[in-house]
Amino acid sequence: MNLVEKVLARASGKAVVEPGEIVVAKVDRLIMHDLSGYLTADVFDKRVNVAIPDPHRAVLVFDHHFSAPTEQQADVLRRNREWARKHGITLLDCGHGNLHHAVVRNGHIGPGMIVVGSDSHTPVHGTLGAVAVALGNDSHAGTVLPYGKAWFKVPETVCIQLDGVPKPSVSPRDIALWLVGQIGEGELNYRAVEFSGSYLRGLSFWDRWLFPLLCVDLGAKCSFVEPDEVTEAFVRTLPGATAELMVRGDGQEAAAVLHFDVGNADVAVACPPTVGNVRPVSDVVGTPVQYAELGGHGGGRLEDFRAAAQIMAGRRVHSDVRFNLVPSSRAVFAQATREGLVLALHEAGATWFPPSTGSNQAYNMGAMSAGEAMVSTHSRNFPGRNGSPEASMYLASAATVAASAVAGSIQPGVVA
User: Fold this and answer.
1) Which UniProt key words apply to this protein (predicted)?
2) pLDDT average, residue stretch 322-336
3) Is residue 8 within a helix (H) or strand (E), and if so which, with residue range?
4) CA 388/CA 368 separation, integer angstroms
5) 3-state SS class at 186
């Protein structure tokens, strides 16, 4: 069995499971942000309303309404706080960071876990060797909270083998976007996706993170990186975390293996209207932007701010651009402060925001008017995602975002 099958077998009390089999498995962690938590709480209170036997399994993170701008949004946070307090659910209040980074940084996710959440990017926790899937709020309220379980159909596995050496200035983010364009949106429907290969194995933990992050755009149910020394070393830096539950597959072949030479990838941009509309940056160079942002589930990493600081050295943000910086977690902001990145980017004209999910859906920031455009490290670029449906969102690497902020139009960034 591979990693996903082993974890599902253990959690469902079976010796062996096979693709297509339906199992009822013990859930180790339920993760919710302020929007999904509010909906789950409403269903739970109205239709379930029992004591939660293991409230420590659930973690609620405020990352969309990181500083409520209206009474209605403040009421959502107040209701969430009251519900979490009533049931003993772990709450990471405003300022902790975006959902997925915050739960990892605070030691709530570990290898071998089954993790569920309503956010579509929940599968990103496969980077740690967890089996992580997105479920609906009714499932959270009806089975996960009262019983600590959920049902799963064991997915067939597809292995994506990434080998080769990238071209200069082509970053892991560029390659992740390029990969979605190569495979196609929705082409791996309900599969488990394993990311492997010599290129992938040579990446740091947070660069590996960028690949399972995008598996939902491929239509996959979950994704994972087979745990190794990089995984174990990272896990040991987390508070209270342990690598004892780390699961490794038996080396059995996947149902399909897709081979990609990363040397064929160029600096990439996902253009409107979907993540799969990936083009070489040369196709859109010179496109004017009014906003640039480092943030979101795939951005706001320390690596992103380091890259931006290199690009911005001796330069300033263009007068027509608002360059927004959103740390993915408090830990990232603290380290960026220690390294002098906060002051350097501030003096270059960028604006720092609280650790959160940033302009994701424009709940607190980043709403655009018709005809405006943003280039960002976010994970979504659908029309209307950030304000007007006539605004445009381009997804790119941190280097491209920073270079575009300087130029006032989309430009590739060169990082040593």
Assistant:
1) Iron, Iron-sulfur, Lyase, Metal-binding
2) 98
3) helix 3-11
4) 6
5) coil
